[in-house]
Amino acid sequence: MHGLRRVRPLHLALGLVALVVLVSTLVVHPNLPRGYLAYSTRPLWDTSEAPTDVIPHFWADDVPPTDLCKVHGWPPRSHPPQVWDATIFSTELDLLLVRLHELSPVVSRFFILESDRTFTGLSKPRILSSALDTDPRFKPFLAKVTYQPFTGAPLARGESPFEQEIALRRAMTDLLRTEYPTDPATPPPVMVFSDVDEVPSRKTAELLAACDFASPVHLGMKSYLYSFEWQEGGETSSWRPTAVEWPQRGRGSDEFYSWCFRRLSDFVTKATGYSHVDRLGSRPSALLRPERIQRTICSGLDFFAMLPEAYTYRDLFNKLRLVPSKSAVDVPTYVVEHADELRYLLPGEGNCIREDAPGRHGGVES
């Protein structure tokens, strides 16, 4: 009679490793965020492109902007220039109105470019063109708005969506060159480059007009996700908006993904049409289900079910789970004055429910 075969320790260890790998592949891996390995280790191998020389921003309502120049280390201007605002529009009518109301008291001209295609080459209507003609809410600003349509094209095989974005920004540069003042005695305008959902405050615009700042300067902004209920990062978590004295343009502005849309369908348009469409991965239908989008908005979770982009572990842990705000202080005036119309942008029970949500009047379906 033969005795039981002895299992060697090496074979046992290899078997345990194989079992762990199998369980991780079949059970753990599908439930982890997409790109978790790259995003969880980013603080180890990557660094932020954000500027490191940060100028503290000071403001007091009863102090003239010219006096505040000295606090910032800038000389006041003897002849304040015009302030021009340049932005590329996609679908954000509400946020454009917020922007116009916030900046119009300071900005002399608004330059807006609208394409008939998304960055991924998908056809879309130019909704701003008709809104400027028919929507009375835009009437007070028409004298300051220079609108130009842009004709896009389908993506060629192998072409990156960023090529479409670059083409739009070049078209904006060409438009501004045709409008640049020819009189050498005219002070060069201060240009603000940012996306529609990157809204500089009126106070910042007044400061830029009053002070001879060192051009270009990036504008640090608070970042809100889906609405003013969810703030992510600190006071300068968004830094890509830029102010320059034209024609010293500098780098311009990149996308800022605040995703503050009125309708769930707008989220789908954004996700399938912007430069980072690859974040949808291999499961776009699962990520773009209306029920799933609505739950994500109300929970303050990442739209693509990915880990947050962070360059230190402190920032990574702080962004993992956003804490909902119970107040909305120092938000643009237009939002507060039109709270009923723009309730989806404000904190409050039920405000996160979008107007085209499944079961809109009876709760979100699960």
From TrEMBL:
Signal peptide location in the record?
A: 1-25
**GO BP annotation list:** N-acetylglucosamine metabolic process
InterPro entries noted in UniProt: Glyco_trans_17
Asked if the record carries the keyword Transferase, the reply is yes
Q: Does the keyword rRNA-binding apply?
A: no
Please report a single Pfam family linked to this protein: Glyco_transf_17
Annotated Gene Ontology cellular components are: membrane
What does the UniProt keyword field contain? Signal, Transferase
Highest taxon above the source species: Eukaryota
One GO MF annotation is:
beta-1,4-mannosylglycoprotein 4-beta-N-acetylglucosaminyltransferase activity
Q: What is this protein called?
A: Glycosyltransferase family 17 protein
